[in-house]
Amino acid sequence: MIEFIFMLPLATGLTALALPASLGRIMLLITALLHFQLTIMSWMGKLTPAFAKYFSASPEGLLILMVTSFIFVCISLYAFSYMEETEMENKPVFICCMLLFLGTMSMVTLSDHPIVLWIAIEATTLVSAPLIFIHRSKEALEATWKYVLICSVGIALALLGCFFITMAMELGNINAPLTFTSLNTVATQLDPLWLKVGFIFVVIGFGTKMGLAPMHTWLPDAHSQAPSPASALLSGALLNCAFLGIYKTHVLMNVAGLGEFSGNVLIGFGLLSMLVGAIFIIGQPDYKRMLAYSSIKNMGIIAFGVGIGGFAVYGAFLHIIHHSLLKSSLFLSAGNILLGFGTKQVQRIGGIIGFMPKTFISLFAGFIGIVGLPPFGMFISEVVIIIGAFQEHRYICIGIFLFALTLVAAGTGRIFMSMCYGETTEKFQVKEKTLRLLPPYALILASVGLCIWMPDVVYETILHSIKMIGGTIHG
Amino acid sequence: MINISQSILVITLLSVLLSLGSTRLTSLVKIMALQGVMVSLTPLFLKDHGSFGSGAIIFFQIMILIKGLLIPGLLYMAVKRIAIKRDIEPFIGYHASILSGLAIILVSVFITNSLRLTLPAGHDIVLITAITTMASGFFLMMARSKAITQVIGYLMLENGIYLIGTALTKHSHTLYVVEFGVLLDLLVGVMIMGIILHNINSAFDDVDTTLLGRLKD
After folding, report:
1. Residues of chain A contacting residue B119, judged by C-beta atoms under 8 Å apart
2. Residue extents of the structural domains in chain B
3. A142 part of contact set with chain B, CB < 8 Å
4. ipTM, interface predicted TM-score of the complex
5. CA of A383: how far to CAs of A314, A378, A396, in Å?
6. B193 in contact with chain A, both atoms CB, cutoff 8 A
7. A170: which residues sit within 8 A by CB, 6+ positions away?
8. Which residue, A398, A454, B118, B154, has most beta carbons within 10 Å?
9. What is the residue extent of each domain of chain A?
């Protein structure tokens, strides 16, 4: 029963409410490990869906499930130590929401019914909201309010999109169950006009959640105000889940022969997000906000890659994996710095290389990775996307793409250099701890490892995921 | 003979106009309760939906309970606890709001006519009501400064989307389990928004959204 994958964290999450925080932390870790084990079992094909009307194990879903599960193991290890060292008013609620968050995200990756997918994505918003305002500062409250309201309204529009797709089905006189799998088999009979309208609404709706510009306004606030383990999850896992909703609809459009239209929509949103991300990174005074804008830019790259099609889709999927690994690692490093210096202002931080040499390593490696330099995976994925775009003769798009990448590299570089080597006025507060260092290291090593040796099964899963929209690796 | 479904829809439309013109939050919450019940009743009285099984009857009862009682109840509690009576300082005045509401109805009629959909008889007025409700929800969110009116605007938007769902699709596709999930999301969403509202109120001593402007670039 593949539904165990999301039922387990949901159940343990609710039990954690009743447990004291010390026990809850252990449960967080154990659930993370069990979830990872179940994910591996589902990859081996040992689990079959019990409610095939609503859930199925699609390759793209499994890929994102694996990324989410792996990141969550690392983050739960980090949170184990993090919760000891920070003051949190209500630790059981934090643990509960972390687990429910994992559960709802797993549900997103497994759902096959468009409206079940919608329910799961809306549920991720609701269970992650308490994570953001766990510190109850005025800023955190404002960020949570914006997050819940903007995302709920955005996702409501995606529901409208789902209804339009249902209507396209009715106009085509199709009597099939409403699942992505069965829709793909009858896609050509769907009414093209309403399918297009539905797609637009789905992109606007789930795009809000994914952080595509211009619907991204909640993202920097929420990611910067949430406690670092939660930011790492929001950025590394949640954005992918929202992307999955868009991707599944894009596949449907492709099968229905409207791939060019939906691809162009994605390219437009993608390039706009890249530019917005790049512009706001330059001169950003807050390093967690800088990381959040970098997520917007990377989501732009992914949407762009998928929109281009062909070889670039392969790049986009690589980018999803490596962005999740590197960005969550960076958010965890940023959490260490925040604990150490007690401020998010870039100006007041300096000399990390002297004060926190071990964090410096993960931070610097993450920085190299995130701007797309070798030996990290984002270098490969970005090159693949550019090659794919050349094959499709999208020269203007490539120009904008490269321009945004350069801006980001310059902006991030300046911020990281001043943080690592500059001078500081702050007093150093909390020492580095192994338990908080291992997870960022593990995430970065995973990214490097996947560049050197990618298991065949991962490779094949990516190929299966992109096959439907004509993605290949033999351009 | 009075057509029941049409009268329900007309009441929904009136509730939209009333909500745009209401000056008190408590009355706004009551209007939302009425609107919730009307919206939940609509699919029951649309003729071509055929006969309903017992599962459907239970589902609609739950829906009326949630939309007409639980959600307005939560909102009412939030209004009482935050102790705000008047929805002061609208960005757009009440009379102007009602006038905009009327304009929205006209535009919705125009949109529905220009879509040239082959809808079953009686469904075009559902579509008009749905678009009006959605657009007015958006309007309410933007035109009022209290955070709680934004929640109410969101609810109206959701009501509108539900109506569109009923107008455009047959119920044979949507399974009640799925619709129940959507409803549950809505309920939990309002609950969480209520909790945040309470926290905002204790942190800022007010729930005015103009106070929420600390985070920017």
Report:
1. none
2. 4-205
3. yes
4. 0.92
5. 11, 8, 16
6. yes
7. B168, B169, B170, B173
8. B154
9. 4-467
